[in-house]
Amino acid sequence: MLLPVGGLGMNTSMDDMNLIQQAQRHHLVVRELGEEIDLEIGPGDDDPSFASTPIIGGPAREPSAEDHDESKHVVLISQLSNDDQDMSKTQPAKRKKKVVKRWREEWADTYKWAYVDVKDGTARIFCSVCKEYGRKHRRNPYGNEGSRNMQMSALEEHNNSLLHKEALRLQMASKDKIIVDKPIYVKALMSKTAGSIIEAALKRDPHEVEFIQAVQEAVHALERVIAKNAHYVNIMERLLEPERMVLFRVPWVDDRGETHVNRGFRVQFNQALGPCRGGLRFHPLMNLSIAKFLGFEQTLKNALSPYKLGGAAGGSDFDPRGKSDNEIMRFCQSFINEIYRYLGPDKDLPSEEMGVGTREMGYLFGQYRRLAGHFEGSFTGPRIFWSGSSLRTEATGYGLVFFAQLILADMNKELKGLRCVVSGSGKIAMHVLEKLIAYGALPITVSDSKGYLVDEDGFDYVKISFLRDIKAQQKSLRDYSKTYARSKYYDEAKPWNERCDVAFPCAYHNEIDQTDAINLINSGCRILIEGSNMPCTPEAVDVLRKANILIAPAMAAGAGGVVAGELELNHACNLMHWSPEDFESKLQEAMKQTYQRALKAAADFGYQKESPEALVHGAVISAFLSVAQAMTDQGCV
């Protein structure tokens, strides 16, 4: 089994002096690591001594334009030691040729798959895949240029070898996928029983990083629950395996008539409490691990809400950005052609998520209705003229602010006058801004994939409308600064170093790492309301908890979308349109119930209300106990 680079124990960052000394011992002087090298050429390939010739490799460096100009010249930097010069007087003169070659770009990219080691007292370059060296690993990658035995690196061209094929495969994979160069972060658990659950998950799905992270957070919160009742270990093991995972291809045709194929996912994680509800995400980085993590989180979120529902998630690695309406329609229709048989009001109804809005949901439901042959329910999220409630899209963002207000009320504080930083600039983030302004808070930031925007004067309703226009026209948030002089856009940065009282991460999972967590603490943040699922890395969570930053988990704070979806699907609600006031009143009541359930569960297992872990652990405990009871009652199914 192939492991990530970080797990191979390979020495890719060798001590510079050690490498230079080895190079000198083999008649190779490196002028400076990373620069071009001269090689002393000895006997040819047909010389019997070639097989025992020691080799050494220098680190990779990508060529520059200046390099190509200089490569026309021959530079001599080889130098023999005094002992070698004395020996050369008694030996026949060698045929010498001075050559200067630089790394090709493709070999620089794959150099990390090789490493230097000593065998039988001689430094050699080994393939980090097969752990072998040999002549096939030393062929000249430059064809007829230079000498046939030019000793450049372990990744010199050997098209028929395992090394070349595997390195090429890994190189291509690294261009399209995020390669994890470090081991999965495993939290220390007090209970061996709880640790066994993590070990089993790691053994079964070792490469599903996002899913393993979500499992670890849940098991960590459930340690005291599992310690009181060992029966829950078996329940947890069953819960962590989804009831159904559908993986399928999605072929579609663009406006030029060219065919494309994407991958679709739908994970129906658990239906013990009721039919599945969960989002669809269209994003280039979407994969099975993310679908499972989202489905697991949605299962707990739905169980914690006032409505008893199962959890699901799915989507595709399709990127809707830059696509025409017709292309998106054709993709959505192809997507639903495969998945529709698993959907229905009593089975599974998808909802909006990242990359999926009212347009996409409309196309999906239209094709579903056509295939099903009747108007059976509706997907949660589309427009009012074929759905129920009038504030569906606002529900999640508004719910986050309501939840923050509940936390502050218990501290005898309020949102009015507090500085708030918000990440993201999608539906959730914009509705968070709206409700923060309504409560008198001062939201100062939004962000996108390329940086963040800060307005020291704070946003107002006019500015939010302007931001929406910018997003609708697919422009950069940078354009906002051209109109409002007191604002500034920071490229390749995050908003977590801005002075604030409350933070609302609403962009993407793992958007807050350890450094960002330290920045938040130094910026004065005291409360973090999770708008996106699992926005903090495990290391960031540890830092925030040690600093007593109160975290409101997404499965509790983000329950507003679940509430609105169920109000839409309620038959009585579909016969009328809710007024904004009535809808907000019901949403606030549902968020209050969720908040109280989380605190009660935390208190039942010994977590103090003031503890930064109270809401996180309480939410997981309350949700898990609901699901576990239903699974126990229904038997082993």
UniProtKB/TrEMBL annotation:
This is glutamate dehydrogenase (NADP(+)). One of its GO terms (cellular component) is cytosol. Residues 40-71 are annotated as: Disordered. Residues 389-635 form the Glutamate/phenylalanine/leucine/valine/L-tryptophan dehydrogenase C-terminal domain. NCBIfam families: PRK09414.1 (NF006929). The lineage of its organism: Eukaryota, Viridiplantae, Streptophyta, Embryophyta, Tracheophyta. It is an enzyme of class 1 (oxidoreductase). Keywords: Oxidoreductase. One of its GO terms (biological process) is glutamate biosynthetic process. It holds the Pfam family zf-C17orf113. One of its GO terms (molecular function) is glutamate dehydrogenase (NADP+) activity. Its EC number is 1.4.1.4. Belongs to the Glu/Leu/Phe/Val dehydrogenases family. Gene3D superfamilies: Glutamate Dehydrogenase, chain A, domain 3 (1.10.285.10), Leucine Dehydrogenase, chain A, domain 1 (3.40.50.10860), NAD(P)-binding Rossmann-like Domain (3.40.50.720). It comes from the Eukaryota.
